[in-house]
Amino acid sequence: MFEQIYDKANKIAKEILKQKEVLVVTHIDADGITSGAIAYESLKRAEIDVEIEFVKQLGDDEVEKIKDRNKFTWFTDLGSGQIDKLKDLSFAITDHHVPISTHKMQLNPNDFGLDGTIELSGAGTTFLVASRLKKRRSIFDFFDTNLDLLKLAIVGAVGDLQDSVYCKLVGLNRKLLEKAVRNRIVEVVKDLRFFGKQTRPIVKMLEYNNDPVIPGISGEENNCLNLLKLLNIDPWKRWIETSFEEKRKIISELVKICINYGMHPEKIYRLVGECYILLDEVEGTEKRDAMEFSTLLNATARYGQEEVGLRVCLGEDEAFRKARNLLQNHRKVLSSGLKLVEEIGVEELENIQFFHAEDEIPDTVVGIVAGIVLNKINQEKPIVAFARSDKGVKVSARANKKLLDLGLNLAEAIKIAAEKVGGSGGGHKIAAGATIPEGKEEAFLIILNEIIAEQLKVGK
Ligand SMILES: [Mn+2]
User: Residues 80, 81, 86, 89: what is their CA dihedral angle, to the nearest 10 degrees?
Assistant: First the structure.
């Protein structure tokens, strides 16, 4: 079933192998960084000169700059949406975003009837080509190469939340996972799907979890402490340091709380699912767990330090120390952001709620703050957050599954409203963003409020 996509990966790899030098252009997030790292490392191993550039998006300006470099360019985790702009450039694309057209040098799971949002990530797509980048051909040609980079393909998929719908990786991601397991690169563990099992005290892991939000536990440090005391478990040790019996006790206690609260079984099931352990990384570090690894990479990207993230993927210790500092700093920024929203409050319109962080929260973090705030307040309306950025006002909007079921589509609503006030935007149904000119916030809110009213009315 996947033969055709492997076949095309092989062909693209052959073209890349003809190059002496390649420019890798990739996206700034965990999937983009791992994609870039896979391309970068595999090219180096094939003795091809390689440079790498990170871009937030592939707009006209970026494309012009890339064309000026006059080099064969390998776009990873982006490019499929802009392929019409790439004429008179020699390139390869390994991307999983919906493509606007097909191309012989584009590898994209959507072109093969796969769902690029869950069945293969940018990193996975890039790995398929990297696994065929063999400098010297031999009778063992049918063996894949660069198998060690599979772990980055798994981290990239998890970074793009491709495992979150089914609480496990599916589609071609699953094939890659199976290969990683067979080669003892990754171990699959059924466990609590909370963040921080390797690195955080259990009490903090419980407190900060919000998928699903557990009433009385999420965001409630004291209750978490009491729960653990009641179970006679040291709250300050880490999850990986607890015994099987202790884990069992905690999980069954959490399930009980959810049932008592009348939570939907579908949500309760989300507590436990697959977790991916990277076997050649040191236990108790962020790099050991795919979820924590991808969070670490995102922390570097959010503060303009994606090069550090790249070097973490390439295994550099100094970069790893820097990345950990960035993550620690990120936690501080998040908690002061949440404090700020508590102080200024969230205002409500008929169909949306919003806050304006001015320049008190970085524009790269305001979306996460909005997501956490939404979990704590009125769940019936999507939340919109504003923050100043160097290009105008950054808008971040977040919703939940319940609102999507009612017909909400934030990507579409945000795009239309932003364009009407002279900005631009887009994203996903559940999370979208835009940049609008300063002073247009009110006009934007009024338009958005109307569009969303329409969406929800149709949904009913
Ligand atoms: Mn991606």
Answer: -20
Mind listing the domains of the chain with CATH numbers?
Answer: 3-142 (3.90.1640.30), 189-334 (no CATH), 345-459 (3.10.310.40)
Residues in the 5 Å CB sphere of ion ligand 1: 31, 77, 122, 160
Tens-place pLDDT, residues 172-209: 999 999 999 999 999 999 999 999 999 999 999 999 88
**pLDDT band at residue 137 using 50, 70 and 90 as cut-offs:** low
Which segments within 200-283 are labelled E, that is strand?
272-278
List Cβ<8 Å contacts ≥24 apart for 239-247.
239/192, 239/194, 239/196, 239/197, 239/198, 239/200, 239/202, 239/205, 240/197, 240/198, 240/283, 240/284, 242/202, 247/191, 247/192
Q: Please report the pLDDT score of residue 212 as a whole number.
A: 82
Cα of 110 to ligand 1 centre, how many Å? 13
Closest of 201, 182, 159 to residue 301, by C-alpha: 159
Distance CA 40, CA 177 (A): 21
pLDDT score at 209: 86
If 0-12 CB within 10 Å is exposed, 13-18 middle and 19+ buried, where does residue 276 land?
A: buried
C-alpha to C-alpha distance for 370 and 355, rounded to whole angstroms: 9
Gap from CA of 408 to ligand 1 centroid (Å)? 23
Examine the pLDDT at 59 and tell me if it is beyond 70. yes
Cα–Cα distance for residue pair 193/292, rounded to 1 Å: 11
120: its two tokens: 């293969």
Q: How far is the CA of 162 from the centre of ligand 1 (A)?
A: 9
The Å distance, Cα 244 to ligand 1 centre, comes to 35
pLDDT for the residue numbered 118? 96
The H-or-E segment that residue 396 falls in is: strand 392-398
269 CA to centre of ligand 1 in angstroms: 26
Pairing of strands 347-348, 353-356: antiparallel
Going by C-beta distance under 8 Å and a sequence separation of 6 or more, which residues neighbour residue 308? 300, 319, 322, 323, 326
55 CA distance to ligand 1 centroid (A)?
Answer: 13
State the greatest distance between any 2 C-alpha atoms of the chain, in Å, as a whole number.
68
Task: Provide the 8-state DSSP code for 207.
Answer: H
How far away, in angstroms, is 77 Cα from ligand 1 center? 5
